[in-house]
Sequence to fold (183 residues):
Amino acid sequence: MASKRIAQSSVNWAAIAERVPEADKASYLAFKAKSDGYLRKMLASPAEPLKIDWAAYKNKVAVPGLVDNFEKMYNAIKIPYPEDKYTPAIDKHEKEIMKGIEEFKVESSVIIKEAEKRIAEINSLLPFGQMTFEDAAYIQPELTLDLQNKPSFWPHQDIDYVFDEPEAESPQIEEQKKIDAAH
Fold:
């Protein structure tokens, strides 16, 4: 009889255990043990209140009407099963989550299609070992040398820049010219 009380709200612990991260296994097991303890206590108590032998009390109690009054009051007590206030809120939250998941799937499919298109473009390119500078400039213009706007590659050094003015003669330049002439 007691199992009928919880048949609709039984929990699939195996399905929950599959989704619990390893870091949270201890707290999950503690929660499950506490829940199982409550379930055992509930199943140990009877589903219906105990029947009282009112006739035996009427024979033993000398005050007339006292047992009848207690019996009437006892039978008038009805303890309602707590109403379920949380299932509609959980169902509403689940629908919102599912809506968000569907939106995420749509956005992800768009991103996946763009990535697959880009992969197809990359696979259709010449291998980099066979490319010329013109091919690379056509494919990736932002990575090529632009003498007007970006006249050097990183790391930028003064020697990378072209100067129109002649350099002033310095002892270092003279020394370099002698070294170059010796070769």
Notes: Helices lie at 3-6, 13-19, 25-44, 54-60, 66-76, 87-124, 133-139, 171-182. The chain has a mean pLDDT of 82.
